[in-house]
Amino acid sequence: MSASKKTPRVNAVKGTRDILPPDSVVWQAMEQKAMRVFSRFGYREIRTPVMEPTELFVRSIGESTDIVNKEMYEFKDKKGRSLCLRPEGTASVARAYVEHNLRLQPHPLRLYYLGPMFRYERPQKGRYRQFYQIGAEILGTESPSADLEMLVMVHRFLKELGFRELSILLNSVGCDQCRPEYRAELTEKLRAKKDQLCQDCIQRLDQNPLRVFDCKVPSCRETVTSLPLIGDHLCEGCREHHDRVVEGLQRAGISAGRDDGLVRGLDYYTRTVFEVVSADLGAQNAILGGGRYDRLIQDLGGPETPAIGFAIGEDRLMEILPDSFREASLREPVCYVLPLAPEYLPEAETLALQIREQDVVAVLEVDGRPVRAAMKYADRMTFDRVVFLGEDEVAGGTVTVKEMRTGEQSAMERDVFLNSLT
Ligand code: HAM
User: Fold this and answer.
1) I need a surface site. Which of 201, 238, 276, 281 has the fewest CB within 10 A?
2) CB within 8 A of 68, min separation 6: which ones?
3) What are the two backbone dihedrals, phi and then psi, of residue 415, each rounded to the nearest 5 degrees?
4) Which atom of ligand 1 sits closest to the CA of residue 276?
5) From ligand 1's centre to the CA of 313, what distance in Å?
6) 266-290: pLDDT as tens digits
């Protein structure tokens, strides 16, 4: 099956990649864990399209953000409509909420989603142009208890993956009542320091000065250390809301650090914002991020619908996944069904099916490998058991089973073997 040397290959697009087995098995286990944990909190899946009208992201994520300014995979379809590969999931959930009149459903509405997202960023460790998120949103409630539920759910999920030391960073970015005043003060202070800001931040000054807190340019990072903080300008409602969330976390025994400069890279946030970061990830250290977005649905033409959510970056999570979870997810026992001569293959096909009927994995030797080669293969594939079918076995309705870990080998009635699998 060797390809001609002259035939050029086609490789994956820069910043995208294939997830191959056995890694894909670990990804699947992680996604199943998320779905299981989120279901336990009453969340159900929503699937939205991978492409959306460009306008959706401009209006929701915001024109001053890097995502909208620099990172969108924007293209025109054959009718000249401007579309985007989604850079995140929240805007799509909000659009679906408005489009399908989901306000008519019992509230609050708890939804989760998973799938690929696309951002045209410079690829590096933990940063891809096609990456994967698992996200959850609770819509139609402004209760701080909903914020708490989100954080507890995130914590529970990370704990069930075996993480111990990840902690949550928390902040409040205020609301329509308190933010304008803060914003005015911030803009004034920033104007006075304009010469210390990068070009992007100078532009951000008029659109959304809070973005400066999110800038990675060293001189801007330095500048923000002397700026007033939103936390000191919260209105009473926002302060109370924030305090309730902090108290709830304490009650639940979840440690969360306050990060006064946490504003997040999307414009739709109000009140609670949070991230979970890991030092093991280097510069791209946010594993997940989220927050409240009480105005987004209104801004997209829907009814007043306060909401909060988060999204986990699966690619980053995989980089730091505890070995215990990885190993456990690869530990599914496998029976390798090995016919000892070609004439026993039909019987072996039947046996493999019978094993699978017991909900056990059976891999059939379809290529007639000789025993020595077959055992080597079984070893490389780390199969747990080899089930031999030869003349004696077929004639006597038995199987010979070799346990690969111990080397123990025994013959038994076929029925007894099949029953032993359940
Ligand atoms: P975000 O902070 O933009 O929030 O993304 C969430 C997570 O996605 C990040 O913490 C990171 O782990 C991962 N991520 C982002 N960009 C990349 C990339 N280029 N490569 C790999 N991983 C990446 C949101 O997307 C919001 N929709 C979260 C949310 C939901 N807020 C409310 N509800």
Assistant:
1) 281
2) 57, 58, 61, 62
3) -65, -40
4) 10
5) 6
6) 899 999 999 999 988 888 789 999 9
